[in-house]
Design brief:
Blueprint lengths: L6 H36 L6 H8 L3 H26 L2 H9 L9 E3 L28 H12 L8 H9 L7 E5 L8 H6 L4 E6 L2 H13 L5 E4 L12 E7 L7 H14 E11 L3 H7 L2 H13 L5 H5 L3 H7 L4 E7 L19 E7 L3
Parallel strand pairs: 1-4, 2-3, 2-5, 3-4, 5-6
Antiparallel strand pairs: 6-8, 7-8
The protein binds S-adenosylmethionine.
S-adenosylmethionine binds next to strand 3.
């Protein structure tokens, strides 16, 4: 939706955008440098995120970075709600104008899906109302993700990273679990133009925005309100199932149920693939324990309560336990627009981590 900002709103938004960039591009490296200095001064041996916490929790730069991150997000969401609130009627009417004749894709909502009890009392990554409690959730997510990722994902680079890592086969039916506003779904419309592409999410406001966004971007996606762990689709309905940034937001037992559901939904020879950051063990041993610490602590700071539990898991084991005959992890280099190796990312440099399950043919 094209919202014309006033001069004042433009200034407010530019300010927030710059603060977010400052967090990632300036505070992140400064934190890394101060941390290295403390390690050097104390001659500390660092092997794990826990070791990092013991030396950095009291460091002024870490306290400042934590404060900055939280308040920056709060200011961003508040400003979004102020700007949208000024145009509430117009925005709500636009969102409600769905399934128009001539639409490429479709929107299918089912209020019976409700809110899973594991999201009852949290506002995920501090988003007001979470994904389900505000009619503007999709718009808030979209406006957040640009500044948060310093516009590195404006061209859906993360979705493309997962899509390009999937074993190449002539897929005809693709399901994106936890599709949100569709950014992770769109690459499949381009890669497999003859495939039927479906995105599911438990949260209606995300899907409503996703549907409008997809139509604007000329992507044919069928959005449907369903739980990833209990979709209600028939056995063997899809030949490719993907999930981007879903697994760190659900409790481990639910993640296990999602993998089993994916196995049930796949045709023989079908593929399941999810992408997240690398597990803590991988970060600690092969990249940077500081990155593991930053991810672990952001779960606590930013109301992402299931993140630490998921990052501790062995994902190959999780996928094998879900029934997949073949399971493996694949490191994928970060090729987001304007991104270097990730060195300037607040969370540090590391590859994306794709975990794949293949159902026997
Ligand atoms: C971090 S967002 C990622 C969205 C999208 N995959 C992307 O990369 O842009 C996670 C999404 O998963 C959805 N979600 C969380 N738990 C879910 C569940 N159990 N079933 C279906 N969707 C879920 C949320 O509503 C949210 O839209």
């Amino acid at each position: 939706m094209d919202i014309q900002f006033t001069r004042r709103e433009n200034a407010e938004w530019d300010f927030i955008d710059s603060l977010m960039a400052f967090n990632s591009i300036n505070i992140g490296p400064k934190l890394k440098q101060d941390y290295a200095n403390i390690v050097e001064r104390r001659k500390a041996t660092i092997k794990s995120a826990k070791d990092v916490g013991q030396i950095i929790n009291d460091a002024p730069i870490y306290k400042f970075a934590s404060f900055f991150e939280r308040h920056n997000h709060a200011m961003m969401f508040d400003t979004t709600l102020d700007i949208v609130g000024e145009r509430a009627d117009e925005v709500l009417a636009w969102l409600d104008d769905d399934n128009k004749s001539g639409a490429l894709g479709s929107l299918d909502l089912n209020p019976d899906v409700g809110v899973p009890d594991y999201y009852d009392r949290i506002e995920i990554h501090t988003q007001p109302g979470s994904y389900h409690g505000s009619p503007y959730a999709g718009l808030m997510y979209h406006w957040m993700i640009g500044p948060f990722l310093v516009h590195r994902d404006d061209k859906d680079g993360m979705g493309w990273a997962l899509a390009n890592a999937v074993p190449r086969k002539p897929y005809t039916s693709v399901l994106d679990m936890g599709c949100g506003i569709g950014k992770s779904t769109f690459p499949y419309c381009d890669l497999f133009p003859d495939a039927e592409v479906t995105g599911i999410d438990y949260a209606a406001p995300m899907l409503k925005y996703g549907h409008k966004f997809a139509e604007e971007r000329q992507k044919k996606v069928h959005f449907s309100q369903r739980l990833a762990e209990d979709t209600g689709y028939d056995d063997e309905s899809f030949d490719l199932i993907v999930a981007l940034w879903l697994f760190h937001e659900i409790p481990n037992p639910v993640a296990d149920a999602v993998v089993k559901e994916a196995y049930r939904l796949l045709k023989p020879g079908g593929v399941f693939a999810l992408m997240e950051g690398p597990p803590f063990k991988e970060l600690e041993e092969n990249h940077s324990p500081l990155s593991a610490f930053m991810l672990d602590s952001t779960g606590k700071r930013m109301s992402d309560p299931y993140l630490p539990g998921f990052f501790k898991r062995d994902r190959v084991e999780m996928i094998s336990n879900g029934g997949f005959e073949t399971a493996y992890d694949k490191a994928v280099s970060r090729t987001l627009a304007t991104e270097d190796s990730g060195a300037k990312n607040f969370f540090g440099p590391y590859p994306w981590w794709v975990s794949i399950g293949e159902k026997a043919g």
